[in-house]
Amino acid sequence: MKIAFVASPKPGAQTALKELSDRYGQAAVAEAEFIVTLGGDHTALEALHETLAMPAKPVFAMRTDGSVGSFCNSFRTHDLTDRLHAASRVQLPVLQAEMEQVGGRSRELFAINEIVLDRQVFQQAKLSVAVRGNGDPMNINGDGLVLTTPIGSTGYNRTLGGPLLPLGSSLMAVTGKAIGCPLAWSPAVLSDHEILDVEVIEAAHRPVQIATTSETIPNICRARLFRSPDRTVTLLVDREAQGRLCTPFGRQC
Description:
It holds the Pfam family NAD_kinase_C. It comes from Sinorhizobium kummerowiae. Keywords: Kinase, Plasmid, Transferase. This is NAD(+)/NADH kinase. There is one protein chain. By secondary structure, the chain is of the alpha+beta class. The protein folds into 2 domains: 3-86, Rossmann fold, CATH 3.40.50.10330; 94-230, Tumour Suppressor Smad4. It has 5 helices and 15 strands. It has helices spanning 11-24, 41-50, 80-86, 156-159, 239-249, and strands at residues 3-7, 34-39, 59-63, 88-101, 106-111, 114-119, 125-131, 138-142, 144-148, 171-177, 188-191, 195-201, 208-211, 216-217, 220-237. Strands 1, 2, 3, 4, 5, 7, 8, 12 and 15 form a 9-stranded mixed sheet that branches. Strands 11-10-9-6-13-14 form a 6-stranded antiparallel sheet, with no helix packed on it. Strand 1 (3-7), helix 1 and strand 2 (34-39) form a beta-alpha-beta unit. The longest helix is centred in the N-terminal third of the chain and has 14 residues, at 11-24. It starts with a strand and ends with a helix. 39% of the residues are buried.
């Protein structure tokens, strides 16, 4: 079995990397059958992003000491090959953003957990937000918006008061950041077939950026956000972790 181990720079993860690679070997990511991450959620998300170009390559995340891993499996060095073969495969949706920057340049990016629109300066962002085909746009002032998948709904989205989404559901959540008139706005749960169109009002004077775990693109004037129709990534969840993971997501795996 060819395994590629990817570790956080934290000392505990680096110690685990040496122990596991000595025991099981270390394959290149492109040649591996499995990617095993050592650290927390951020390390796992970076590996999942890397598999966008290798969609059949599953990621098994293990949480090491000092890291937060809400969707990571427990860490141990023995019986890893058995755990990899026995783990459940969860197909995770991928968010896609198609955007235009001030000046006319078109860009595209992808995200596993969330896409964040953020103000770049002290002034609030002014955004026109619409779900395609569902009524007139809503104009809002605030620090920005977050579009999240089920796997991302327990993270940043939750700290902003956004809803938890069941793992494996066909849903997305849109949550505001410090919206200036909160009574006019509340977090929304959307089908993952919906398309969210956002236009930045006064983009040159109130600049807005789009950020994911792996990339930030500044000076956006408009963006279209949606679930990618042809991309998924695979997370491996072992039996020990299923009960813990399913509880916060509100459903049984």
